[in-house]
Amino acid sequence: MSLSKRIPIFLLRLLALGATVSATLVMITSHDSAQLFNMKFEAKYTNSPTFKYFVLMNAIASGYTLILLFFPSKSSYGHLILILDLVMALLLDSSISACLAIGQVGKNGNSHAGWLPICGQVPKFCDHVTGALVAGFVAAIVYFLILLYSLHNVMNLFLLKT
Amino acid sequence: MSLSKRIPIFLLRLLALGATVSATLVMITSHDSAQLFNMKFEAKYTNSPTFKYFVLMNAIASGYTLILLFFPSKSSYGHLILILDLVMALLLDSSISACLAIGQVGKNGNSHAGWLPICGQVPKFCDHVTGALVAGFVAAIVYFLILLYSLHNVMNLFLLKT
Q1: Which family, according to the similarity comment (chains A, B) (predicted)?
Q2: What proportion of chain A, given as a percentage, has pLDDT over 90?
Q3: Which residue ranges make up each domain of chain B?
């Protein structure tokens, strides 16, 4: 791949790395507690399997993106990298969707199921989760752009050769 | 695209259509009610924005897949269809992830947030949601395979020409 095509991908990966690392750290540091009817109520990300999944996926995406930033780009790995990028986009997409669904219940509750909103009691926790979701969303969008750009390059080369 | 390459894609799309239509219908027909402390508790998919999102995405994917089944495949649309397939895979992935996160709370509850499990009260509703999730999962996997197969074809053609 020519240098002019590698620079946009490098910059996109740098942005994705920033977003996934932010999402991971902001979610890990989310913590708040509240006193309610003599019961101490502590909110942290490990309380929910969905939030743990979010942290795990963003950590994996961070590691993957970091490796790819310094990977000697050989065209023979292009096929594999495109598929790994696709898997990473799907995993990030999955983690923010799941996290958003739980966050929505945390914010608004669900009266039909009798689940009360918790953000009024632990606002700092909810702010952190919102921040992590925004960062995760940026990461997912950037991975989508990486995929589009890679596909565009592959397709254009293909069309030029025919 | 040659016929030998169009048949696997046609079969995969047929399978995807079956899965997304099943997921939509099974979720829409999910319904159960329970009597609890003189209060009637009714469970249906419209009670949760996540389940409504799941139905919407699977309905969109059904429509899209149906159109593509009878689309006269011209190579000039290949680029666009590949990107639309990617978007569809991401939307299906997002809808099952969100639905799975809520389903997990419905099944196990979350003691930290004070959210009680509801599947004990409305088992028929939970069975339907589980069925819809399985069908949705199949659809997402099939769309992943469609993407892999399309990428494989594009890449192979590209490698042959170089």
Answers
A1: Belongs to the Casparian strip membrane proteins (CASP) family.
A2: 60
A3: 3-161
